[in-house]
């Protein structure tokens, strides 16, 4: 295996499937089966899920809601998604642990680094919910922070597109894809990979990022085996 421990970042929107809102159970099971396949290869898997399919703090602020309140509501949305993913994984026999950055005794453990690492070493999938537990930080930043804390080898950012492009491929048909790009090139060219706080955290801690299409079955397994899929952001 190319990697011993990965952090998989999934957007909340990706869980919608073809819906306009909420969670598509078929998409959830597709993801669970891909994670099961990768786990069976021996790699340790931690996951961070966004909440944009349910609620976005930034959008709430634009509508007049106080940003801090909106961000906490967004953190709760990530917990709903995390619980749904946990349920899907456990339905196919995968042991999981859900850890929350905000204390929720009835449904999740608190985030404790040593406990999370021990779960991973025992072959359990660990899902980190509620972002960083702080307003003004995105789930991308939470993914970067948790990946660094648990000494992950790489962040795998699963999206609806198959990598990083010169422009948004859904809007610009002339956009071309990068197979590999450096952190400095991303800064210089203003490419959209993660929000800048998350991206800088990865850069400063020498943590590579791979952006790939999670909706194409088999991609996660290919990455775990070391095949070139999506776009690698390296140094």
Short structural summary:
By secondary structure, this protein is an alpha/beta fold. The chain has 8 helices and 11 strands. A 9-stranded mixed β-sheet has the order 4-3-5-2-1-6-10-11-9, with helices on both faces.
> Which word captures the global form?
globular
Count the beta strands: 11
The CATH level-2 architecture is identified as 3-Layer(aba) Sandwich
Biggest sheet features = 9 strands, mixed
What proportion of the residues form beta strands (DSSP E)? 15-25%
CATH class: Alpha Beta
CATH homologous superfamily label: Acetylglutamate kinase-like
Question: How do the helices and strands follow one another from N- to C-terminus?
Answer: EHEHHEEHEHEEEEHHEHE
Termini distance?
A: 21 Å
Unreliable sequence segments? none
Return the average pLDDT rounded to an integer: 94
Indicate the structural class: alpha/beta
Overall domain count: 1
Q: Radius of gyration in whole Å, from Cα?
A: 17 Å
In helices, the fraction of residues equals 25-40%
Task: Write out the strand line-up for the largest beta sheet, numbering strands in chain order.
Answer: 4-3-5-2-1-6-10-11-9
Number of helices: 8
According to CATH, what is the topology?
Carbamate kinase
